[in-house]
Amino acid sequence: MKMKKIIPLITVLIAMTITTNAQWQQTSLSSENIYALATDGTNIFAGTGGAGVSLSNNNGGSWSSVNNGLTSTGISALAISGPNIFAGGSGMFLSSNNGGLWTSISSGLTNSVVNSLAISGANIFVGTDGGVFLSTNNGGLWTSASNGITVNQIISLAINGSTIFAGTSNGGVFSSSNNGTLWTAMNNGLTNNNVTSIAVSGSNIFVGTYGGGVFFSNNSGGLWTAVNNGLTNNNVNSIAINGTDVIAGTDNGVFISNNNGANWTSVSTGLPTNTQVWTLVISGTDIFAGTRLGPYGVWKRPLSEILTGINELSNKNSSFKLYPNPASDVITLSINKSNNYALALNIYNVTGELIRSEPLQKDQLQINMEGLNNGVYLIEIKSKESTSKQKLIIQR
Asked: The pTM is what?
């Protein structure tokens, strides 16, 4: 929705209306358990419990089966690297043409039950019921890479730079900094060892557990702290990170936190009670949720909708206001400047990269946003003595 410049009061009323009416919408892929989601540009792939892989190339508007050559109809993991799509279920499969044709790539994989995938450059890691396996040639050959892991079932994998993290069933978290040659347990402070999901943002790591909620570490897993305030369901199946926001899929809907899990807010409007959200993926300006055990299928919601409510809470004490939000080309900043310190404007994208920085000279300013693509950004106003941040959504 493209919004023109309007006065602040009207902007607030519109934002309240959008928030009130906002909710998750079920897509036409509605009759299968969804265990994996992956996105590549405009393509969204869904791994189902019994119907193989489905593809949408119109943002979830419609789906088609892409199973030619796929001998496993239960797909539990998906990962994309360049033109290659990897699917794990009963064995491993590779497609280089958007699922038009799949090839079995299970040579050396001594356990065929695949639960998770992670890719770093030429290194592809697979988590199975028999440990971790590594391939350096697009799945042409797999070798065991589990030395030091004391349990067999690997549920989740995540990579941060040269370090890979593995979440296990009842064994906690292990990490390796040498491509799986040796793993070390990283469970200090982790009171639930059934680790279903891992998400990494810089030095911050979040793990979801089944029964213990979410744990947070800001030192690469050296120490974990439970961060569950406001999280009313502690069975966490999936975690996604969008800039400074952490989104959790649980056995009772979706929750979001914008302060490293210290506080969570439910954003499940439109989802039936006790919906098991098994997997989450962000594609452009939308977030998709894969559910299981009824309601089935893929659900969709604009990312701006779930950020609006949390931003209203976080922005109450902010030293500035911005409007309109969402915006198209120009925003107005109204700054409560109580001192003579110079101010700077910083704009960050969803990955935390600083994409613009400039000084601010007046108490109320108009800033041109024409160079920014649709998406979510972090606006930071910084002075010598303080820093204040707010989310901005660009939507045209």
From this structure: 0.77
